[in-house]
Design a protein that fits this description.
single chain; five-stranded antiparallel beta sheet; alpha+beta; 19% strand
């Protein structure tokens, strides 16, 4: 009997030593950032000792680091319940990712208390901003706005502006490398972000004078020691500015903010953080509002792989309307934008709204691109010089335009002479008569030459199109 007991104890110690060695290997891999390699080691350990608090902590943390917060929660709750200090921290992070912000704040508080108890005062103080961030996110979630998101488009981050379609009255967005520039409707003022020596981005404005940009001014938008403000957009009033910031108490990466210019003292008001679903624990930026077509856009990398973003199109509310959800799960889903269909109102035709807005913008762009209106034949109308296929036809049309300009100038001169003739005395009329007759004769010749140039341009272009089978 003693022999068997001795063998059993020896065997148990050997197994324990084997698992201890494996767990130590897992910890080493974890410290090296090799979470995927460490995960199966801790999974094996947890299966052997499911009630081991330490194993639960390490396995849950590895699940968290490999992008599995839903699964990690169970193990970290168990470990935190067994008073493992670092488990509080991992659990708080997990709950934050799951949008359980109030519970996350509680876990961070417990982590701070445990550190304080262990007399790690400096480390405990570093947890305070994390508690405050979770509390801000909880308040933001409770006031999640009920907006109708009517479209979404996934693009590469470098081309994300392709999803933005704005009316001319709303201004325009241009990309210059990594820099996004907002131009006002008159294109005489622009806003952009520039990287400073401290590594942070600051937003500047400039005005255009005699085709040169000048009067560069920084928008004072942050009290942070290293501001990181970017992606500006200005409403039609010229005073309301949307921008993105990683400071100003952001809840995760870039958050969207709004401010207004105070004309009385040439400053900007303290920025207001926008709510959910515009903001999230990911990067949210480039808010733009087309007030003419009642459409808004913003970009986010939530749910997205690296270097991809989704641009959401929504209908702006005139005032903030909070969501009245039936459950926490529904509220979280709307805040995350799990599905844009969940935001749609019954019976609303969002596709018609979107189609009409895009049609309006396209017609506006087409109209803006037209330099002239020149009929080639019943089926072809040209609007720009680039429409011409034949160089000789283009030269004839240029002559037609020059003759048109000469006719306009001559018509103005004749109109002035005729008015002067009508109100003049006999002497004045006598002096003007020959000049008027000469200009009228010249006008007749210009009309003939103009008609010939137009006909020549049409004939040359039609002949070229026929011979080239276009």
């Amino acid at each position: 009997m003693r022999y068997f007991v001795c063998v059993f104890v020896t065997f148990s110690l050997a197994v324990t030593s084997l698992y201890a060695q494996s767990v130590n290997d897992g910890k080493a891999l974890y410290q090296e950032g090799k979470y995927a390699e460490a995960l199966p080691i801790f999974e094996k350990a947890i299966k052997s000792s499911p009630r081991n608090a330490s194993y639960n902590h390490w396995y849950g943390t590895c699940l968290l680091e490999t992008g599995q917060p839903e699964k990690a929660k169970e193990y970290l709750v168990f470990a935190a319940g067994r008073k493992i200090t670092e488990a509080y921290h991992s659990l708080a992070r997990t709950l934050y990712l799951l949008y359980e912000f109030e519970e996350s704040a509680t876990a961070y508080t417990q982590y701070k208390e445990a550190l304080t108890k262990d007399k790690k005062t400096a480390q405990a103080e570093e947890v305070v901003p994390l508690i405050q961030r979770a509390e801000r996110a909880a308040r933001m979630l409770s006031r999640c706005e009920n907006i109708q998101i009517i479209d979404s488009m996934i693009l590469d981050k470098r081309t994300f502006l392709d999803a933005y379609s704005l009316s001319a009255e709303s201004g325009s967005l241009e990309k210059n490398g990594d820099q996004v520039i907002y131009l006002n409707p008159l294109k005489d003022k622009r806003f952009y972000a520039e990287k400073g020596e401290d590594g942070g981005y600051r937003i500047f404005s400039e005005i255009k004078l005699q085709d040169k940009w000048s009067d560069k001014k920084e928008l004072d938008l942050s009290d942070d020691s290293i501001p990181n403000n970017n992606y500006p957009f200005v409403l039609q009033d010229g005073m309301t500015v949307y921008f993105a910031s990683t400071g100003n108490n952001s809840i995760g990466g870039y958050d969207l903010f709004i401010t207004r210019y105070n004309i009385n003292n040439d400053t900007y008001l303290s920025p207001n953080q926008m709510g959910m679903p515009f903001n999230s624990i990911a990067n949210d930026y480039m808010m733009a509002i087309d007030e003419i077509n009642n459409l808004g856009y913003f970009a986010t990398d939530r749910f997205m792989p690296e270097n991809k973003v989704v641009v959401y199109t929504f209908i702006p509310n005139e005032e903030i309307i909070p969501i009245h959800a039936n459950s926490d799960e529904e509220l979280i889903s709307r805040a995350k934008i799990t599905s844009i269909r969940d935001s749609w109102k019954l019976g609303s035709d969002y596709q018609a709204h979107l189609t009409q807005a895009r049609k309006n913008i396209q017609e506006e762009q087409n109209k803006a691109a037209r330099d002239f209106f020149f009929v080639i034949n019943d089926n072809i109308i040209y609007y720009t010089l680039n429409d011409f296929e034949n160089d000789a036809a283009k030269q004839s049309f240029l002559k037609f335009q020059q003759l048109n300009a000469a006719m306009r100038d001559l018509e103005i001169e004749l109109d002035s002479q005729r008015k002067e003739y009508a109100g003049g005395n006999n002497t004045k009329k006598q002096s003007l008569r020959s000049s008027i007759l000469s200009n009228e004769s010249r006008m007749e010749k210009l009309v003939v030459q103009q008609e010939e140039a137009a006909m020549n341009a049409r004939n040359l272009e039609i002949k070229y199109l026929r011979t080239s089978n276009k």
